[in-house]
Amino acid sequence: MAKLSPMTDADRARVAAAVSTAEGNTSGEIVTILAARSDDYADVALAWSALVALAALLALAWAPDVYLALVDRLTGTWARHWTPGGIIGLAALVAALKFGATWAILLWRPLRLAFVPGPIRHARVHARALAAFRVGAERRTTGRTGILIYLSLAEHRAEILADQAIASKVSADLWGEALAAMLARLKDGQMADGLIAAIERVGAVLAQHLPRAEDDRNELPDRLIEV
């Protein structure tokens, strides 16, 4: 994927205009959210640190003579007599050092994200999108016609969630085309164009299944929300 160009005020205005245009033909209300990332993944970094520490302990248990001899060489000690307490203390020290070093390395967010398994990233993005949907779109309109387009940059993932009145008429599979249109633009580094492409596809689907009513009014903000 090409490096995404940062959003400018002109890009934000274009996205808001695209939402306004799409809503002109439907009673649906489109909300767009752009997130830098959907989670901190501190628990994943903690799990990796614990796993590395455990691996070090297992290695020490599997080949204790190798590690004890290495410590003796590093400390300049000849044929030290290792007591059980000394061995336990060494094991605790090794585990603590491995844990701390791994945690420190994973403080660099790009590396931490690289070590997050795909299913976990997908689940966290979906959970964050669902939370944003419940706050910003679900049941926020008179006819429950809100729909959320959510893009999480760090994870390179997007979600489209629809309120009851839309979900009851439109198959979730149809949103796949909107996501594909967005992804095609994002691969070229065009963030604003990607969002606009998704908005246009979503707007076309909404206009077909939920045409604009005469008394319809704009109930949700058209501007791009950045979190």
Which descriptors apply to this entry?
membrane, alpha/beta, transmembrane, TPM domain-containing protein, 227 residues, Diaminopimelate Epimerase, Chain A, domain 1, TPM_dom, transmembrane helix, 10% strand, 9 helices, 4-stranded mixed beta sheet
What would your notes on this structure say?
The chain has 227 residues and is α/β, with parallel strands linked by helices. It has two domains: 9-39 and 117-226, Diaminopimelate Epimerase, Chain A, domain 1, CATH 3.10.310.50; 42-114, no CATH class. It has helices at 9-23, 42-62, 64-75, 84-105, 109-114, 118-136, 164-167, 175-187, 191-209; strands spanning 29-35, 146-152, 157-162, 225-226. It has a four-stranded mixed β-sheet with strand order 3-2-1-4, with helices on both faces. A hairpin with a 4-residue loop joins strand 2 (146-152) and strand 3 (157-162). 30% of the residues are buried. The mean pLDDT is 84.
Topology:
Elements: H1 9-23, E1 29-35, H2 42-62, H3 64-75, H4 84-105, H5 109-114, H6 118-136, E2 146-152, E3 157-162, H7 164-167, H8 175-187, H9 191-209, E4 225-226
Parallel strand pairs: 1-2, 1-4
Antiparallel strand pairs: 2-3
| Helical fraction | 55-70%
CATH architecture of the largest domain: Roll
Largest beta-sheet details: 4 strands, mixed
Enter the CATH topology name of the largest domain.
Diaminopimelate Epimerase, Chain A, domain 1
- Neighbour order of strands in the largest sheet: 3-2-1-4
SS-derived structural category:
alpha/beta
Question: What is the helix/strand order?
Answer: HEHHHHHEEHHHE
- Strand element count: 4
The overall pLDDT average reads 84
Task: Work out the count of structural domains.
Answer: 2
